[in-house]
Design brief:
By secondary structure, this protein is mainly alpha-helical. It has three domains: 47 residues, no CATH class; 138 residues, no CATH class; 90 residues, no CATH class. The protein contains 13 helices and seven strands. A hairpin with an 8-residue loop joins β6 and β7. The longest helix is centred in the last third of the chain and has 29 residues. The relative contact order is 0.07.
């Protein structure tokens, strides 16, 4: 075999190994894209897809290609926004550092405890500051009324302000907050070298930390939101009657699902606890019926106004 033929065979062999699969550099991104609509929009912006073609592509899209419609109510949007804020505050070291100066009197700098933070020191200051705002939770515990707290007050046990702590607790479910509220191990504010977890008043009652009051406040707010939702969307007033009537159980269950109370047993327990906490005169059934009447009268107002305008004109 001549050298020329040998060179040609070797050359062909080499060329065969150089042949690559036809491959577009953007194909992986295209295959991995979740939202093809954004891809089509991009092509349209680059002039790679004409208007008519873009419209036809949109028509052929499947439901999963399009962004889901935001069906949340304004209240739900607000709730979600606060949840995100709360988690962000809790995880942010910058927030803790920014607020640290307010609790500097709690840092012990002498001896072997140098630099150790003792929440009891600023807590004593809070006890004096809010002297007239302490209420008895039970025979063994007292707490500060949430309405007395300054929104910018830095809480000794967490380093967050009252406002930031509210956002954090708002990010939790009703059941989660309830379990935290009534867990005695969650509220100790003693430093690591101290075996006494709380401060006590002259009657031997525990001073619950300020953050307990914030959690208690948000727990009540979230339950009232639930009750207001039930009153607005879970009741109807039959024609010719003034007494609100609860809708079928299935309708109520849809509302309950949005609020994460846990099991039916847990929900009953929490709501009973809430009812007792609101005073002897408060009854959940009465509250729901009154709210349902108010909601119904508000809905009727625009209708009556339209009829009145028509008659007048």
């Amino acid at each position: 075999m001549s050298y020329k033929k040998t060179d040609k065979i070797v050359g062909n062999w080499r060329e065969s190994y150089r042949i690559q699969k036809i491959y577009h550099p953007g194909i992986e991104l295209l295959e991995e894209a979740v939202n093809r609509r954004q891809f089509v929009k991009g092509l349209g912006a680059l002039g790679l897809v004409g208007g008519a073609t873009l419209a036809s592509l949109k028509k052929n899209m499947t439901p999963e290609d399009t962004e889901p419609e935001d069906k949340r109510t304004e209240l739900e949007k607000y709730q979600d926004e606060i949840k995100e804020k709360g988690e962000e505050y809790w995880k942010s070291d910058k927030v803790a550092v920014a607020n640290a100066s307010a609790n500097q009197d709690g840092v012990i700098k002498d001896g072997w405890m140098k630099g150790t933070y003792n929440a009891k020191i600023p807590m004593k200051r809070m006890i004096k500051k809010y002297k007239g705002d302490w209420y008895q939770l039970n025979p063994k515990m007292v707490y500060i009324h949430p309405g007395a707290l300054d929104e910018k007050e830095v809480l000794p046990t967490t380093g967050l302000t009252v406002s930031q702590q509210k956002d954090y607790y708002y990010s939790k479910t009703v059941l989660s907050i309830h379990n935290i509220l009534y867990n005695p191990n969650a509220w100790a504010y003693n430093p690591p070298f101290d075996e006494v977890p709380y401060l006590y008043n002259e009657k031997g009652q525990i001073y619950l930390p300020l953050s307990w009051s914030v959690a208690y406040d948000i727990w009540q707010i979230k339950i009232y939101e639930f009750l207001d939702d039930v009153a607005k969307n879970g009741y109807t007033i039959p024609e010719g009657s003034s007494k609100p009537v609860m809708k079928p159980e299935q309708e109520i269950k849809k509302i309950i699902k949005r609020y994460h109370f846990g099991t039916k047993k847990e929900r009953i327990y929490i709501l009973k606890e809430f009812e007792l906490s609101q005073g002897d005169d408060f009854k959940i059934n009465d509250y729901l019926e009154n709210k349902a009447r108010q909601s119904s009268s508000l809905k009727e107002t625009p209708k009556r106004r339209q009829i009145w305008i028509k008659k007048l004109n």
